[in-house]
Amino acid sequence: MSSLGIAAQLALTKQTVGKWRQRYLDLGLDVHLILDNYRTHKTQQIRDWLMKRPRFHLHFTPTSSSWLNLVERWYAMLTE
């Protein structure tokens, strides 16, 4: 997929995707993504996509561990 197509899907600029692609993907490095346990990250569509791209590895935070998610921690500070 082109950098423009990826940028459109992720709401990023083409330049940002191009820099990321040049730094990581074009070097042939594995890509490790850390995600929460939200169900949408584990759909059959995602699993099929990952099977075609063995360099991508998903790692999930433990269930009920919002304290590990920096966004959740930020929201907690705002509500205190």
Summarize the helices and strands and which ones pair or pack.
Layout: H1 3-10, H2 14-25, E1 31-35, H3 44-52, E2 56-60, H4 70-79
Parallel strand pairs: 1-2
Helix pairs in contact: 1-2
Can you walk through the features of this model?
With 80 residues, the chain is an alpha+beta fold. It has one domain (3-79). It is built from four helices and two strands. The protein has helices spanning 3-10, 14-25, 44-52, 70-79, and strands at 31-35, 56-60. A two-stranded parallel ribbon has the order 1-2. Helix 1 packs across helix 2 (14-25). The model has no long low-confidence stretch (mean pLDDT 77).
List keywords for this structure.
2 strands; globular; 80 residues; alpha+beta; two-stranded parallel sheet; 49% helix
Low-confidence stretches: none
What is the residue-mean pLDDT, rounded to a whole number?
A: 77
Number of helices: 4
Approximate helicity band: 40-55%
Biggest beta sheet attributes = 2 strands, parallel
* Biggest sheet strand line-up: 1-2
Secondary structure: number of strands:
2
Q: State Rg.
A: 15 Å
Short summary of the structure?
With 80 residues, this protein is of the alpha+beta class.
